[in-house]
Amino acid sequence: MRQKRPANIPARIVETDTVKIARMASKFSLDMGFPVHLIGRPGTGKSSALWHIAQDMGGGYCEVSAQSRSTKGMFQMLLGTLGIADDHKYISDLSDDVYRCFMPINRYCSEAGCFVDVPHFLVVDEVQTLEATALRELLRVQEKCSLGLVIAGNAERLATTRRDAATWAQIESRIGMQRHLPGPSICDCELIGAAFNVEGKDAYAALSAYGTRTNFRDLVQLLETARRMSGPETGHAVGIRLIHLQNALSTLTARTGAMKLLNPEDA
Ligand SMILES: Nc1ncnc2c1ncn2[C@@H]1O[C@H](COP(=O)(O)OP(=O)(O)OP(=O)(O)O)[C@@H](O)[C@H]1O
Ligand SMILES: [Mg+2]
């Protein structure tokens, strides 16, 4: 089922290192039947990458919120990715529905010339918000339904919720693969800069200096501000140059020394 794109996810994404790692991890989880945990600092592009990957793979994407952090809320969230609104009162009824709906689908495979079981693929984002028991139940669904499952979140917040040591130990033993996602590389900054029509060697050097010291969110915010500033009053669209990046940064922050972030020499 094609999901409606949330407002915080860009319509198109650039193939950054984060996207490549997330794509490889998603495929690994689906092929091997192991859950994969992707960890990244805020703004590393987890949600953007995983929403698009889930859609490309015909899977579902969901983000844990205050309403879905309990086991009951988590089950309802999973069913929601299939477009099912389930208001069963009892957790046991909800879990029955989840197990039934997420069992592999028996489909004819023309390559194999026979019917095969095709597992579902799911992404659960902001997983650090889940209660420990809800996360354990999620991993149980993965195991019983042979789901391809990627869980993603911020390590910082996950670490502060380790209350139930036994449950966490059980959870960790069930996670097949864990990867830390990198921040923007120089190559990532150049790719994003090209997508925003940045012009000039000096502008690319400044952009790379800025991106590698911040994150994708700050980088894209700078470029969006610079794009607005580079559109002359005449209405002609021109490329983003170094001066536009400098003006955009001084508009975004009044912090002293912020301009150094654009200086490749100031690493
Ligand atoms: N591959 C990409 N292509 C284009 N823009 C991107 C890409 N990755 C991230 N961005 C930009 O960076 C912003 C932040 O990315 P995203 O929300 O995916 O990060 P996150 O790791 O999920 O952050 P958080 O931990 O705060 O949830 C996006 O809104 C988007 O503008
Ligand atoms: Mg996110």
Automatic annotation (TrEMBL):
Alphabetized GO MF terms: ATP hydrolysis activity
Pfam short name (any one): AAA_22
Occurrences of domain ORC1/DEAH AAA+ ATPase (ranges): 38-156
SUPFAM superfamilies from the UniProt entry: P-loop containing nucleoside triphosphate hydrolases
Organism superkingdom: Bacteria
Name of the protein described by the UniProt record: ORC1/DEAH AAA+ ATPase domain-containing protein
Organism for this UniProt entry: Pararhizobium antarcticum
